[in-house]
Specification:
Blueprint lengths: L4 E4 L9 H14 L6 H5 L6 H11 L6 H19 L11 H10 L4 E4 L5 H7 L8 E3 L12 H9 L7 E5 L2 H9 L3 E5 L2 H4 L4 E3 L7 H9 L1
Parallel strand pairs: 1-2, 1-4, 2-3, 4-5, 5-6
Helix pairs in contact: 1-4
Bound molecules: 1,6-di-O-phosphono-beta-D-glucopyranose (B16) and magnesium ion (MG).
């Protein structure tokens, strides 16, 4: 048995911040008269802030100067942060803490691998930062998912080979990134969206300690 690396995405896996990203982007989209639905929001999951804005502008066929784009990026993040002010442990998705606790009890290395630049304050506010041996987020990478950079750096920090890494992801881009890195990809969400993942679970309450133990023993 070699040293494993258990790598968790943040938004949509540990906390449901996708709804806050959506509300914040929707405000910008409304100002620009762009129709931005929940379905469109799926395209932004796991995608960087800068790329998310470009996708929204493409949806509305809007051309913009870099100056305007920078202004909207700041505006979006300020709005997003306002939703995080009252965040606490109650926002952690069901079943996540028992899995983190089981991994810790079994001395398994844990990392965060997120595209978000707001990852650290979220882990602090929800009181789970102590579970993580390494945190790799949007501030540490230059290539966004599906580029595997974020997960490769995370595995390296945990002294593990990519082949011994297990990634929990809710986004298509994130699952693809894990697959490209030759890691075990575990999709959290709907089968129809995440069919490229090696394993798919609706949420963490569906993941048994037996399954985690099998991953540890692999
Ligand atoms: P921020 P993840 C991603 O986080 C989100 O899924 C994505 O919707 C968001 O645009 C991105 O973080 C950047 O977030 O604006 O906070 O830097 O899913 O990779 O944890
Ligand atoms: Mg995500």
């Amino acid at each position: 048995m070699r040293t494993k690396a258990f790598i968790f995405d943040l938004d949509g896996v540990i906390v449901d911040t996708a709804k806050y990203h959506y509300l914040a982007w929707q405000k910008i989209a409304q100002e620009l008269n762009i129709d931005f639905t929940l379905e469109h929001n799926e395209l932004l999951k796991g995608v960087s802030r800068v790329r998310s804005l470009d996708i929204i502008l493409e949806l509305g066929n809007v051309q913009a100067s870099q100056e305007d784009k920078n202004k909207w990026l700041v505006q979006k993040n300020d709005e997003y942060l306002s939703y995080l002010v009252d965040m606490d442990q109650s926002e952690i998705l069901p079943g996540v803490i028992p899995v983190l606790e089981f991994l810790k009890q079994n001395n398994q290395p844990i990392a965060l691998g997120s595209a978000s630049k707001n990852a650290r304050p979220i882990l602090e506010k929800t009181g789970i930062i102590h579970f993580f041996d390494a945190i790799v987020d949007g501030n540490d990478v230059s290539n966004a998912k599906p580029d595997p950079e974020v997960f490769l750096i995370a595995a390296k920090h945990l002294n593990s080979n990519p082949a011994d890494a297990i990634v929990f992801e809710d986004s298509v881009a994130g699952v693809q990134a894990a697959n490209i890195a030759k890691m075990i990809s575990i999709g959290i969400g709907e089968e129809k969206t995440l069919h490229e993942a090696q394993y798919i679970f609706e949420d963490f309450t569906q993941i048994t300690t037996r399954f985690i133990q099998e991953l540890i023993n692999k």
